[in-house]
């Protein structure tokens, strides 16, 4: 568990680009410190492309300003694919992510389990096993002592990455830890994260299945989301109201879920001080600051 809760934004947020620092990306660390949030999840979602000198500067400035960094690996990583070349390319992307993480001083690499596993339940299980096997195959080539991989809850119903599947990966891969995206979980379960109690249930399940230490090392993504029967549709803003025509007896809540207040209350109940990243639509810095303020007030 981190010594204190850490609240981060996902990528470079809109208010940074509206600031006086907007033309110098290395100023993000000074800006984050001044804004009042604790860190950033560096987005390498379209490829591992950061030059070595930039990584060196980022590491130095993050240390200088005491800013936390995690990394989101490329979206196209798909270790459970039916296509062998896709799995091999994905393994190489994990290795490249590790190399950059070492240069940045990052200890958490988040990735999406992906799709393309097939159509039947048997094929789904086989896809999950391919993912687990691939991670275990590359363990001998990586220094996994300090840097862990974080498979993330998938936002779509058909994607690999249910809560049970994330737990299964973490049981079978020594250097894997859970990334629980509560908005993804809410969406793929067609509206499940609607209360403090529902969030606490998830935290208790992780603790029961993986142990307290693993729960304390879990990485969280928290923001509200809209969804369809297929899962995640779009990211929303904390407190954003749902259209009246979507409010009915089956989903009576007038705002998009999950709520910041529910998540923070669940952390307090479970006595957790984790790393939390906000991905609220174009307001990730405000959402992170809101959660930090709520956490410190309780």
Description:
- By secondary structure, the protein is of the alpha/beta class.
- It has a single domain, classed as Divalent-metal-dependent TIM barrel enzymes (TIM Barrel, Alpha-Beta Barrel), CATH 3.20.20.
- It is built from 11 helices and 10 strands.
- It has an 8-stranded parallel sheet with strand order 5-4-3-2-1-10-7-6. A two-stranded antiparallel ribbon has the order 8-9.
- α5 links the parallel β4 and β5.
- The chain is globular.
- It starts with 5 loop residues before the first strand and ends with a helix.
- The model has no long low-confidence stretch (mean pLDDT 95).
- What is the fold named in CATH at topology level? TIM Barrel
CATH class: Alpha Beta
How many separate domains?
1
**DSSP helix count?**
11
For the biggest β-sheet, the strand order reads 5-4-3-2-1-10-7-6
Summing up helix and strand content along with how strands pair, one would put the structural category as alpha/beta
Let me know the average pLDDT: 95
**Cα separation of the termini:** 19 Å
* Fraction in beta strands: 5-15%
Secondary structure: helix percent = 40-55%
CATH homologous superfamily identity: Divalent-metal-dependent TIM barrel enzymes
How many strand units? 10
Cα Rg: 19 Å
Shape: globular
Q: Runs with pLDDT <50, length 5+?
A: none
Oligomer: single chain
How are helices and strands ordered from N to C? EHHEHEHEHEHEHHHEEEHEH
- Please give the CATH architecture: Alpha-Beta Barrel
Q: What summary fits the major beta sheet?
A: 8 strands, parallel
């Amino acid at each position: 568990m981190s010594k204190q809760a850490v609240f981060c934004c996902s990528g470079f947020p809109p208010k940074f680009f509206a600031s006086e620092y907007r033309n110098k990306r290395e100023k993000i660390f000074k800006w984050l410190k001044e804004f009042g949030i604790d860190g950033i999840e560096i987005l390498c979602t379209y490829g591992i492309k950061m030059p070595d000198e930039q990584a060196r500067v980022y590491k130095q400035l993050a240390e200088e300003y005491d800013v936390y960094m995690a990394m989101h690996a490329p979206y196209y990583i798909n270790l459970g694919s039916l296509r062998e070349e896709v799995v091999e390319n994905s393994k190489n992307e994990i290795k490249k992510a590790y190399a950059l993480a070492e240069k940045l001083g990052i200890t958490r690499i988040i990735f999406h389990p992906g799709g393309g596993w097939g159509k039947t339940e048997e094929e789904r299980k086989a896809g999950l096993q391919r993912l687990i096997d691939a991670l275990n195959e590359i363990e001998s080539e990586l220094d996994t002592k300090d840097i862990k991989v974080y498979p993330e809850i998938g936002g779509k119903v058909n994607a690999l990455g249910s809560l049970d599947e994330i737990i299964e990966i973490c049981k079978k891969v020594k250097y894997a830890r859970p990334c629980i995206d509560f908005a993804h979980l809410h969406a793929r379960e067609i509206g499940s994260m609607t209360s403090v109690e529902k969030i606490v249930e998830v935290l208790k399940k992780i603790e029961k299945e993986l142990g307290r230490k693993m729960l304390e090392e879990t990485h969280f993504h928290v923001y509200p989301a809209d969804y369809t029967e297929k899962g995640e549709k779009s990211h929303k803003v904390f407190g954003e109201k749902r259209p009246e025509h979507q409010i009915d007896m089956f989903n009576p809540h007038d705002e998009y879920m999950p709520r910041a207040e529910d998540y923070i209350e669940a952390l307090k109940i479970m006595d957790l001080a984790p790393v939390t990243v906000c991905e609220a639509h174009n307001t990730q810095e405000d959402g992170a600051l809101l959660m930090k303020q709520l956490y410190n007030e309780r």
